[in-house]
Amino acid sequence: MENPAFNRAIRSFVLRQGHLTASQQRAIDEGMPRWGIEYQPQPLDLTQAFGREAPKILEIGFGMGTATAEIAAANPQNDYLGIEVHSPGVGNLFKLIAEQNLGNLRLIRHDAVEVMDHMLPDACLDGVHIFFPDPWHKKRHNKRRLIQAPFIEKLVKKIKPGGYLHAATDWEDYAIQIMEVFSNNVELQNSADGYAPRPDYRPLTKFEARGIRLGHGVWDIVFTRK
Fold it and tell me: What EC number(s) does this enzyme carry (predicted)?
């Protein structure tokens, strides 16, 4: 039975808009009509949204979008739907889409939980990426972390059988939590023996490369839907 208090409280973000530059605002104004999808509380036809039949991959919380653009450019056979609430990142990714002419990317600027609940039909996704979600590293804030059992239970329903769920984090205790949440979901099975090696499709960010040089860990957790 779902916890009503959790359902009322869950959010995929905490609003921190940051400074929106003039170029980012212009990119949003120009990009939304071309590659943006407005939030509407009704089912979204992903085939129609992208204008073709192709594998559909969801990314939740793409930040500034640099890695997302790199993934989309390197995998033109797939379509990528990015969800991000923070306007500077949305603007930056629209800018990258325009510069690189990426026809296989669509963006929704809204809370991912509401998009998942109201726009994404069950079994519509071939994969989901959640890369470096906010770790909320102070123990008293751990409850704000996105990857918790009730959220994953909802998300897994949106993935086709055989599709994958890939999370990555550079916080070890969050990696342990993610592994536990994924492992306890009866609809998921681990694609690796424990943590997975970084898949080729996930680019190494400058921040991540610097952390690795300093001896910091990065953990990839990749499960498939049964």
Answer: 2.1.1.33
